[in-house]
């Protein structure tokens, strides 16, 4: 980018486009790497030869690449004697999650090849656990949207703890701002979280009986309301099998797995609870409420009360007042969202237990933020999200501007050299 004669948005976009046409999807902008999603596999771009090549060269010696960024991060742990962080940003479908996986892949190979570590202390435990946890996190935290059929609906910060010898000895995942709204409502043409469809596609007769599940996603309000229950590119049954396998490898017990699926089924059924007005909201689908209470181990009467009444403590006394149908629907949806988000947090906590390890040297953090989108229906949480993203993008623009300023310095510098003008910085 620094060789461009003119630096403005159109020139930058045109340059990125020309490079993209030649399958050069990566471009350096100062210390920032711009990546254009090719939406196709480019032969040899990420194979073991590429990993090996980039691990042996300094930044700038080879064409721009995500592996060059990963390599620079790894080297800087010792060069700068400080922890490193990679921020990945871009609109939905830009390729952030794929880039995160590529960074992890490169760092994992570097860790396994770290020469200083005695064989007995070398561990691939964390790397393996991170790879194996990926289908679980994607099934529970990703969904089909109009922009991306595997869109991350939560932010993820992955921290890898390295030993002095360069081996990954522990890690930690921090999730934030899961899009809870999606559990109860989706925009037209979008889906709920993958795991619900996977459960319905993959559950056999026994599972269906245990989890009180009916046939297809069409029968659940939380899955069918947006008019999209399937996508040709998504294999829900296959996802169910890989999630089951991953849960077992990650040492979730049979009981824990059963509890998670019971909770998911309860959330789905909750969406089918209906109300009518009769001196306040009254539940009309009593069979569904008893299913939900059975799945969650709750008392049916108490659950019905919670969904249709508001209780207040006034001068030490509990006073109940009926909710309107609209309020009852909101309270039903709030319970479903809270249950799902707690389940998600618990799963991340369990994954963290598995990847926990020593933290006695430096770390590399990778932030995979969710993508920017235009929402048709803006709701309160989405507005907060957008504000957060706005602030975050301002921060990134500042970084980008700094990168561009550096380029301007470099290109000005080059021009001066070309015209043989010798110049110095003055304070
Ligand atoms: N480097 C790449 N090479 C080939 N295909 C890619 C690459 N990066 C992304 N893709 C394709 O683009 C799709 C979307 O990428 P990804 O899920 O990483 O987007 P995202 O930026 O994380 O979006 P969101 O913000 O919605 O989560 C992937 O499923 C994959 O098919
Ligand atoms: Mg993503």
TrEMBL record:
Entry-linked PROSITE patterns: MYOSIN_MOTOR
Key words of the record: Actin-binding, ATP-binding, Motor protein, Myosin, Nucleotide-binding
Keyword ATP-binding attributed: yes
Record: residues binding ATP: 90-97
Classification via SMART domains: MYSc
Gene3D superfamilies given in the database record: 1.10.10.820, Kinesin motor domain, Myosin VI head, motor domain, U50 subdomain
UniProt domain Myosin motor: residue ranges: 1-427
InterPro entries assigned to the protein according to its UniProt record, in alphabetical order: Actin_motor_Myosin, Kinesin_motor_dom_sf, Myosin_head_motor_dom-like, P-loop_NTPase
Keyword Cell inner membrane: no
Pfam families the record matches: Myosin_head
Family: Belongs to the TRAFAC class myosin-kinesin ATPase superfamily. Myosin family.
The protein, known as: Unconventional myosin-X
Native source species: Xenoophorus captivus
